[in-house]
Design goal:
Layout: E1 4-9, H1 14-28, E2 32-37, H2 50-68, E3 71-74, H3 86-99, E4 103-106, H4 114-129, E5 148-152, E6 169-172, H5 177-185, H6 188-198, H7 203-217, E7 223-228, H8 239-243, E8 245-247
Parallel strand pairs: 1-2, 1-4, 2-3, 4-5
Antiparallel strand pairs: 5-7, 6-7, 6-8
Bound molecules: zinc ion.
Zinc ion (ZN) binds at residues 10-11, 14, 113, 116.
Amino acid sequence: MTRVALALMAHPDDAEILCGGTLLLLVRRGWSVHIATMTAGDCGSAEHTADEISRIRRREAADAATLLGGTYHCLDVGDLNVFFNAEQQALVTRLFRQVRPNLVLTHSPDDYHLDHEGTSRLARAACFAAPVPLYRPDELLPLENVPALYYCDPIEGKDSMGYEVLPTTVVDVSAVIDAKTELLACHESQRNWLLKHHGVDEYLRAMRDWSAARGKQFGLAFGEGFRQHRGHGFPQTDVLRSELAIRS
Ligand SMILES: [Zn+2]
């Protein structure tokens, strides 16, 4: 079986927070892992220009991907500018045909940030479009199959109405929680920006607290939750469960 995983997220650091442990475990099991972000995080600063912070955050994201043992891609559409439209669908589909994943992780369809929701919809659309030969044919071959698609937990495990979202698959990341923390620590600028914007230095602690809270619900020290997209045409086999999960 092909073993290529792609985490398509809105912003630099989303993948490390929401599925960094799972990506680490996949690398350890021999998977080729890619992280892609729709934006370079160009609005995530109180002190730099958009160009400066984009450069900094691209480098931080690339450093985290290198530490993970994976590859980083930036689609560079701009913060607060991620939308489900024809142009961005083509951009994401092209990435899928380059990376050729059989496992895709993305944001929850209903989340606190509209960039996250836009990314989620784009990931779903690209999973379906990338194997279609007549959809934007170019020099890249269409995918052979629709990849398995999983939605990570929404931020704080709740949807935009505040209702709790329960995962269908929980990955035990206890063995890699310190390595996951090191991945997130690569995003030093975001840690500083949150400190200024929110007034508390909770960046790493908040990630660990959430992983601990999700894990505790399922009898684990640390966990990451996912829901699999099981609509018509998508793989029905729970790839994450067969590779890594403890509950489905
Ligand atoms: Zn984000």
